[in-house]
Amino acid sequence: MPSFENLLILTIIAVLAPLLLGLVPRLRIPSVVLEIVAGVIVGPSVLGLVRVDSAVQVVALLGLAFLLFLAGLEVDLNRLRGSLLRLALLGYVVSLAVGLLAGFSFGAAGWVLDPLLIAVALSATSLGLVVPVLKDAGREEEAMGQTTIAASSVADFAAVVLLSLLFSVSGGSAGGRVVSLIVFVAFVAAIGIAVALAGRSMRLGDLFLRLQDTTAEIRVRAAVVLLVAFVVLAEGFGLESILGAFLAGAVVGVIDRDSTTHPHFRTKLDAIGYGFLIPVFFVASGVQLDLSGLLEAPSALLRVPLFLLALLLVRGIPALLYKRSLGTRSSLAAGLLQATSLPFLVAASQIGVAIGLMTPVTAAALVCAGLLSVLLFPAAALALLRGPRSTTAAEGRHRRHRGGAAEAT
User: In a 3-state reduction of DSSP, which class is residue 358?
Assistant: First the structure.
């Protein structure tokens, strides 16, 4: 029988972290930062009170899967079209180009064995952290918010695909993984279409409606089945489980467009993820963080600010593409938000260590840089967004048109 003592300590930390932030409202930091820091403190690097045993490992793995599932759920495919999609794709290409330059620089310093791994790791944006910031600022539905969300969605999706395609723990040739990816996506599309068609059945729809808010929680169970099925399917094709989890969330998001008959469905999914599984994953990630190795030498510690600068450049420079349509201030804010990344950095660093392309010290520095990005960049973006709102060219023409019409009348 596995012991649950370590898991107990991690769940206690998961409860105390948001409570502490609630008691000290001036301490405006995401709870994920506090969870990882607490994990470092109770882990081998400081107090040595907790280790990642089988029970913690299983729950943490489920937490990572659910984190990527909820990230995929955030992707709104209806908004990713036209000029907005082209701009987001161009921005991601720029991110990869800048990321490769950073990766080769870090490779020359002997910090990483594969520059492309660093480029992919730095190219993602934490969509789950960006959207709340835009909502708090009241910019989610504006041009600036829509552009940032579109760019973040493309970055998240592309980074997950590239990480799974190029750096899978299961190994295999890149060509073989490309074929596997194509077949896997075809399977995902077929399953998504089958589920969508089944959902149109009036009899099945009535049955789901009757059982959704009972102890059966049929919609939640169906979503979990889809998540686990896609994870198993991805692993069966030699791809990373995070890709299956992300696509499961995206498929559920597409199918669940009309939530009028089940308004609490996504709240229940958030409760499972953020209420239990995901906090355990982050605390466990802190426990496994090699902070002692990072602090042993100044040269190792220097990696943290350099990775943070690289993160800002890799995801911030593409925001220059928005300057013409959004203005300087909004573009700077978008760049800061796009450079906010942590969950994907944690996942990418763990995979990098597992396949031997990244040392635990480098992984710790990368995660610490992500922690700092979550602490610094959204706060700086909010400060810019609280300033006077810049008028885009389109908004300016619209206002001039309305003014001319008013004078004509």
Answer: strand
**Is the pLDDT at 397 greater than 60, yes or no?**
no
First to last CA, the chain: 81
Mean pLDDT of all residues in the chain?
A: 85
Cβ within 8 Å of residue 306, ≥6 positions away: 106
- 36 and 289 Cβ atoms separated by less than 8 Å: yes
Residue 181 lies in a domain: no
- Our CA angle for 118, 346, 110, nearest 5°, is 35
Give the span between the Cα atoms of 340 and 319, in whole angstroms. Answer: 13
Residue 196 falls within a domain, yes or no? no
What is the CATH classification number for the domain harbouring 86? 1.20.1530.20
C-alpha R_g of the chain = 22
**Nearest-5° angle of CA 23, CA 27, CA 29?**
115
Residue 106, in any domain of the structure: yes
Residue 22, number of CB atoms within 10 A of its CB:
10
- Distances in whole angstroms, Cα of residue 48 to Cα of each of 31, 39, 390: 22, 10, 51
User: Residue 331's Cα: distance from chain center in Å?
Assistant: 21
How far apart (Å, rounded) are the C-alpha atoms in residues 40 and 283?
8
CA 57 to chain centre: 20
Q: Which residues constitute the domain of residue 121? A: 5-22+29-167+260-386
Query: Following DSSP, what letter does each residue of 190-213 receive, concatenated?
Result: HHHHHHHHHHT-HHHHHHHHHHTT
pLDDT of residue 169: 66
Q: Mean pLDDT throughout 313-322?
A: 93
Note whether residue 366 is domain-resident.
yes
What is the C-alpha separation between 323 and 119, in angstroms, rounded?
24
CA gap 238, 274 in Å, rounded: 28
